[in-house]
């Protein structure tokens, strides 16, 4: 791409990729032979191009003069002007591309990447007893006895997986610890998380950093983010509030890691509340994870 940018000699180069349904995206209209961009069309209803911005740019320092001293979208305000002046060129990506902004898409992207490694650099993938399919394991990670790891698993630096654990289609990030006999499928486990014994997690469960999951819990698709706003009040009917010593998942729900938290207990429902967001595991059209029934409406802030 650097060579392409130097070859055309103008101010900017962007990487583009072909998609099957261009009407869902803003598309790039450019010359097939030179790559010179003529214009951008947002979600076209008739076919004008099937190439979209893949999100990688090389820009000359001259582009800085085009950016005004105010909040500016370079894609929406600067690039169209550069295209009109003939200063912007597109290079088509040779390979796979996808938007991984959502957890489920991130996991799909991980699978594509691991398959690419299998085809191009198979020596980077792990093999051995208990390893199934495409599995990428950092050399500093430790895996116990009688585990089943894979297919489509990535274990980061310092990860510890104890005996009897089953992990499928998951990313486990740096220094996370999965205790014995737990079962994880289609999950993202954040930095320094602790997952207890005999835990089952599935259906795109996402744990932010430093989250602790207690033993013998079932998590079905909650998202647990450490960067959410801090708690301001408890809104659960009949709840009792206390400051816990550490972020935890308890009684079938989930925890959000933060400096200041409020614990809300109402009947059989336990959750962590922060501002107007529901951290109880409730999902639209679904049910509350790990509890007999959803909490009362007043106890579900922001669902």
How would you describe what is shown here?
The protein is α/β, with parallel strands linked by helices and 303 residues long. Among the domains are: 1-92, Spore Coat Polysaccharide Biosynthesis Protein SpsA, Chain A, CATH 3.90.550; 103-220, UDP N-Acetylglucosamine Acyltransferase, domain 1. The chain has 3 helices and 25 strands. It has helices at 2-8, 74-84, 103-120; strands at 12-18, 26-30, 37-42, 51-59, 88-92, 135-137, 142-143, 148-149, 153-155, 160-161, 166-168, 170-172, 177-178, 183-185, 187-189, 194-195, 200-202, 205-207, 212-213, 218-220, 223-224, 240-242, 248-249, 262-266, 269-273. It has a 6-stranded parallel beta sheet with strand order 6-9-12-15-18-21, with helices on one face. The protein has a 6-stranded parallel beta sheet with strand order 7-10-13-16-19-23, with no helix packed on it. Strand 2 (26-30) and strand 3 form a beta hairpin. The longest helix has 18 residues, at 103-120. It starts with a helix and ends in a 30-residue tail after the last strand. Residues 227-303 have low confidence and may be disordered.
